[in-house]
């Protein structure tokens, strides 16, 4: 048996872990905002409030490495174009507006924002886990953008209540 799972199979299986979508922002050496789409955002601890993002080497990685600060902007369901912009497919009308607060760059339509200071980093393969303590955060109501099976979704399905019968597909496993 190979020591590693087949990459295509791994990608497909991992895509079944549904996530929200964020834009991680920081500032470059000139103080200008940079950002990238990331769905690796995870809460780590409540006390103190701690999160992590897993970033591949690139402009945003460089900025976070140097400033040791980043903001996480949780996208709403209407923000697929913004998600694509920060994943390398620029918006025709130009970069989305980012507000500055205490040196963090924020998307005002985000449904949650976290301002973080890096307290620890872990190198893993071609990514770095940036573990950040949350200095402040805020949120507003709105439907979340979700990512599942490599597609964007309106993140709120029907609520499942105790006793609801769940239908499972009959096809079985894809290897
Ligand atoms: C839905 C989605 C989620 C992504 N999540 C991550 C992620 O968690 N970490 C990462 O390194 N790249 C992720 N990417 C890819 C980056 O957004 C993309 O490579 C980006 O252009 C990197 O920008 P940068 O070079 O300015 O850092 C994701 C892309 C998409 C569309």
From TrEMBL:
SUPFAM superfamilies: FMN-binding split barrel. Residues 14-154 form the Flavin reductase like domain. GO terms for biological process: pyrimidine nucleobase catabolic process. SMART domains: Flavin_Reduct. PANTHER family: FLAVIN REDUCTASE, FMN REDUCTASE (NADH) RUTF. The lineage of its organism: Bacteria, Pseudomonadati, Pseudomonadota, Alphaproteobacteria, Hyphomicrobiales. This is Flavin reductase like domain-containing protein. Keywords: Oxidoreductase. InterPro entries: Flavin_Rdtase-like_dom, NADH-dep_flavin_reductase, Split_barrel_FMN-bd. It comes from Bradyrhizobium oligotrophicum S58. GO terms for molecular function: FMN binding; riboflavin reductase (NADPH) activity.
């Amino acid at each position: 048996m190979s020591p590693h799972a087949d990459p295509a199979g791994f990608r497909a299986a991992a895509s079944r872990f549904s996530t929200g979508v964020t834009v991680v922002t920081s500032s470059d050496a000139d103080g200008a905002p940079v950002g990238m789409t990331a769905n690796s955002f995870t809460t780590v601890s409540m006390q103190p409030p701690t999160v992590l993002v897993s970033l591949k080497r690139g402009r945003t990685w460089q900025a976070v490495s140097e400033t040791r600060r980043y903001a996480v902007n949780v996208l709403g369901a209407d923000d697929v174009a913004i998600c694509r912009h920060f994943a390398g497919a620029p918006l025709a009308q130009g970069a989305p507006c980012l507000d500055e607060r205490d040196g963090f760059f924020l998307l005002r339509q985000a449904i949650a924002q976290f301002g973080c200071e890096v307290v620890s980093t872990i190198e893993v393969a071609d990514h770095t886990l940036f573990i950040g303590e949350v200095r402040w955060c805020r949120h507003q109501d709105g439907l979340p953008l979700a990512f599942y099976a490599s597609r964007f979704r309106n993140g709120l399905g029907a609520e499942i209540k105790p006793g609801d019968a769940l239908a499972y597909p009959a096809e079985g496993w894809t290897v």
